[in-house]
Amino acid sequence: MRIAQVCPRYKPHIGGVETVVKEVSRRLAAKGHDVTVITTDPTRSLPRQETIDGVNVYRFPSYAPGDAYYLSLQLRDYLKKASFDVVHAHSYHAFPALFAASCQARRLVFNPYYHGKGHTTFRNLLLKTYRLSGIKTFRKADAVVCNSEFERGLVCRDFPAHCRKARVISPGVDKKEFSGLMPFPKGEKVLLYAGRLEEYKGVQYAVAALRHLPGYRLVVIGRGPYKAGLVSHVEDADVSGRVTFLEGLARRDLLRWYATADAFVMLSSYESYVITVAEALMAGTPCVVAKSSSLTEFVDGGLCRGVDLPVSPERLAGEIISATRVPYKKEIPDWGDVAARMLSVYTEGL
């Protein structure tokens, strides 16, 4: 089967969309499918064409102000002429998915990663303007894949005519990676965050909680536009000596940080799914998450606890101190199962 994955960015970039596309694509390629990733490169520094893990990758220059939208007329023109058995378009919030709807394919599958609103006031205004175009992708799609029940609820609320197409396939983890992880040496307890650095992700709440967490160090892994703001929060809270910023880690080192951490935090205002929470839980690391959006679906009252937004530093610190390593009560899917479920969506009606 000739399968095209259309997404805003791809490896070596790191993010939720990039991870889903990478993990599903390489597994389908390993099973003998002809998989092509069609994406953009706003940096214009990556190879225009290459093969990664058996997957063909085509990159086109794009305009991406604030790491958003990824407008590429070259990608649009390529898709108009291309033909595949299945086109899987990723991310309602960027133009490549809209352009994917014009590609000649026997089946169009759409993963919106839909948040229902923008991350800033300006982006929220643009999102409302974009809706007239974005709805075309929903209309053209034969199936809509959501990452969580929360996201499916948003899709059914905002695009009710297409609710019947929506089904939930949550991202997964590579369970083999978590066998025999060795923690890093440490002389103090570690509070961990891993993910993109955006204000809505809520890392500033963890910084504020440090004043109530003697003996803890906060390790922040990731990059993004809010890093300077976080550094200011750290300085204002007078905890500069207790916060470590890391980025560009090797995969094995990230896994070791999960195993090292005494608690993992994700205090985001809205998410369709968060793979790093699933990975932390797979490592057996206690998690404290915001009781918001899809994050509530991780909460089991044991290994994963929830806190209300806006987050009280004292309450957050209390949950972190109370966190214990107990068996997780919910199932976390393996990427192999995710790829198999996605393939079943691809082949429906073919």
How would you describe this structure to a colleague?
The protein is an alpha/beta fold and 350 residues long. The protein has 2 domains: 2-172 and 334-347, Glycogen Phosphorylase B (Rossmann fold), CATH 3.40.50; 175-322, Rossmann fold (3-Layer(aba) Sandwich), CATH 3.40.50.2000. It has 11 helices and 14 strands. It has helices at residues 16-30, 73-81, 95-100, 121-140, 149-158, 203-209, 227-236, 251-260, 275-282, 313-322, 335-347; strands at 2-6, 34-41, 49-52, 55-61, 83-90, 104-111, 143-146, 166-168, 189-194, 216-221, 243-246, 263-266, 287-290, 304-307. The strands form 2 sheets. It has an 8-stranded mixed beta sheet, with helices on both faces. Strands 11-10-9-12-13-14 form a 6-stranded parallel beta sheet, with helices on both faces. Helix 1 links the parallel strand 1 (2-6) and strand 2 (34-41). Helix 1 crosses helix 11 and helix 6 crosses helix 10 (313-322). The longest helix is centred in the middle third of the chain and has 20 residues, at 121-140.
Count of runs of 4 or more consecutive helical residues? 11
Query: What is the global morphology?
Result: globular
Poorly predicted regions are none
Number of E-type strands: 14
For this structure, what is the CATH class of the largest domain?
A: Alpha Beta
The largest sheet has its strands arranged as 3-4-2-1-5-6-7-8
> Separation of termini?
10 Å
- Proportion of helical residues: 25-40%
User: What string gives the helices and strands in order?
Assistant: EHEEEHEHEHEHEEHEHEHEHEEHH
Q: Structural class, from secondary structure content?
A: alpha/beta
| Second rung of CATH, namely the architecture of the largest domain | 3-Layer(aba) Sandwich
Mean pLDDT: 94
For the record, the count of structural domains works out to 2
What is the alpha-carbon Rg in Å? 20 Å
The fraction of residues assigned to DSSP E strands is 15-25%
| Fold-level CATH name of the largest domain | Rossmann fold
- Main beta sheet, described? 8 strands, mixed
**CATH homologous superfamily (4th level) name of the largest domain:** Glycogen Phosphorylase B
